[in-house]
Design the sequence.
């Protein structure tokens, strides 16, 4: 099939749909309340039926679980709760038999403080692993006292200072996340050797790619200046740790030494990425990564404290961001498409409408909007069922370190009331995405025979895989159709994006063109019927819609329609 010859090379990862599994919440095979590798193995038929091509599995490595596996103590071993390396090998080969590729989460901006490298590093200043991490002397107090102050004012992404004092050597180490996640020193060539060696080991095992955790943060500003103070608390680290001076050099080295030697896909989670930076990370020249996750659309509403707010983004704001990424990367770099993941609330609750009247219809509309854009679409587990945010009345129900720390920091300092913080957490907490997968209307939604580590959303009686697999009009089968369309319609993968109806407050619309074929995607983001002149034009055959019957010249509440006009 011919493509836009000058702009887009064909690649399997451009044609693929990725499904993200958060293993802790997916399926528990042994009744300890924690999802595990054998739980995933049980559901490969389900995933094959959905039709996705790739499973990105959040970290399964050995970890003390300060941040649910994003704090790794051994990169070449499996977390005890998740199973064994043998289980992993079985999962990998069975997934391949089901035509599913496996992408591993690669968390190498930091390790756990229980990783052998850090255990060594903190022992003494002359330990061979000392320079694997970022150590700094305390700052002298201005009042002449002998207080041992942190080297600068940087705040951690999980609240508090980004520096932790370590008594053994009287120095501070940097941790952009929790104090149990010390940052690796990528300027040390031995760190790069060790990381690349480990990646090579996984590639030799036959995995199909890496999703690289906060990979934009591996190169720090060597002058470590104070950051602009936020909320009167700590300095903003973003300008000094994101897209740092050597990040592209290190990724090119990684590409040469490891990535380019295997037929794998790579996606960088790039906090603080701009369009210009993305063109380097995900350049179509293939010198670094295949694609990146940008954050602008999930950060569209400025927080009232930190990232926290209960306001929803408006369509014009959302459209501007999405269109910018679509048009500016065209032909230069490849987009990743996502509305949710394990760090975000449920997409239907945030961007759609999770009330009983509109949940199904708006989940289908959002999925269409995402899957018809240019880039590789990501489905977060449960989104294909239209799973929603949970509501917690008590802080005790939250499990996520970021949410719990933020609650305490902002209420202790009087920057938000407990009621406000609870509202914000219920809206945005990462725990919303991490409630157990809803398989059936039975005990614990069929997730576990034991007591689940996180509460099951009480709506599992209505929203679960079993119910949806029995209903041809379910969100599940709608996703299956979207995925099939991608696999059979080249314009969905390779077509050039062009925005439509840019002044509408209600309708998000765009077209894609390839070799004279035109695909048009129309999405009503509101709960009202909206006039739509474009709908009356001859746009070709309807490929998919979330309504069986249409109103001429209008889109009904959350209605979406996709048309294809052949050359
Ligand atoms: C990434 C992960 C997130 C984790 C953080 C620290 O943002 O997606 O879950 O907490 O990095 O590793
Ligand atoms: Ca288990």
Sequence:
């Amino acid at each position: 099939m011919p493509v836009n010859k000058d702009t887009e090379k064909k690649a399997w990862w451009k044609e693929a749909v990725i499904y993200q599994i958060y293993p802790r919440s997916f399926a528990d095979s042994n009744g300890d309340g924690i999802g595990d590798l054998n739980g995933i193995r049980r559901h490969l038929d389900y995933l094959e039926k959905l039709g996705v091509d790739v499973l990105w599995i959040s970290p399964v490595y050995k970890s003390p679980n300060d941040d649910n596996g994003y704090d790794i103590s051994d990169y070449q071993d499996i977390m005890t709760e998740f199973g064994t390396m043998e289980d992993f090998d079985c999962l990998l080969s069975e997934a391949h038999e089901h035509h599913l590729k496996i992408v591993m989460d690669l968390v190498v901006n930091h390790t756990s403080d229980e990783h052998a490298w850090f255990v060594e590093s903190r022992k003494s200043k002359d330990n061979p692993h000392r320079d694997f991490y970022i150590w700094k002397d305390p700052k002298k107090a201005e009042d002449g006292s002998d207080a041992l102050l942190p080297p600068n004012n940087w705040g951690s992404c999980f609240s508090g200072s980004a520096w932790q004092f370590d008594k053994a050597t009287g120095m501070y180490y940097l941790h952009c996340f929790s104090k149990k996640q010390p940052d690796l020193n990528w300027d040390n060539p031995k760190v790069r050797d060790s990381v690349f060696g480990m990646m090579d080991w996984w590639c030799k095992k036959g995995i199909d790619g890496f999703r690289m955790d906060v990979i934009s943060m591996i190169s720090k500003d060597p002058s470590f200046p104070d950051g602009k103070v936020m909320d009167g608390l700590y300095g903003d680290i973003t300008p000094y740790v994101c897209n740092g001076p050597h990040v592209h050099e290190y990724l090119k080295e990684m590409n040469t030494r490891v990535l380019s030697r295997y037929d794998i896909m790579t996606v960088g989670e790039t906090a603080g990425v701009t369009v210009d930076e993305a063109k380097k990370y995900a350049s179509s020249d293939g010198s670094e990564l295949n694609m990146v996750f940008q954050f602008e659309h999930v950060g569209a509403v400025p927080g009232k404290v930190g990232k926290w707010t209960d306001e929803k983004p408006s369509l014009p704001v959302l459209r501007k961001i999405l269109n910018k990424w679509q048009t500016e990367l065209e032909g230069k770099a490849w987009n990743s498409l996502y509305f949710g993941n394990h760090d975000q609330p449920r997409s239907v609750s945030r961007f759609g409408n999770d009330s009983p009247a509109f949940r199904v219809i708006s989940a289908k509309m959002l999925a269409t909007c995402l899957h018809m854009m240019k880039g590789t679409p990501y489905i977060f587990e449960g989104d294909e069922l239209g799973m929603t945010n949970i509501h917690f009345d008590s802080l005790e129900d939250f499990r996520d370190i970021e949410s719990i720390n933020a609650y305490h920091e902002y209420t202790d300092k009087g920057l938000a009331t407990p009621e406000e913080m609870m509202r914000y957490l219920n809206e945005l907490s990462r725990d919303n995405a991490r409630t157990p997968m809803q398989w059936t209307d039975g005990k614990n939604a069929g997730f576990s025979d034991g007591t689940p580590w996180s509460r099951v959303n009480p709506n599992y009686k209505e929203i679960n895989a079993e119910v949806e697999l029995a209903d041809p009009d379910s969100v599940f089968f709608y996703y299956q159709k979207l995925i099939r369309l991608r696999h059979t319609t080249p314009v969905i993968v390779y077509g050039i994006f062009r925005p439509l109806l840019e002044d509408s407050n209600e309708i998000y619309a765009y077209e894609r063109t390839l070799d004279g074929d035109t695909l048009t995607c129309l999405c009503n983001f509101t709960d009202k019927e909206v006039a739509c002149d474009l709908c009356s034009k001859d746009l070709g055959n309807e490929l998919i819609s979330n309504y069986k019957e249409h109103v001429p010249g209008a889109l009904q509440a959350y209605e979406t329609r996709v048309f294809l006009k052949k050359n």
Summary: The mean pLDDT is 97.
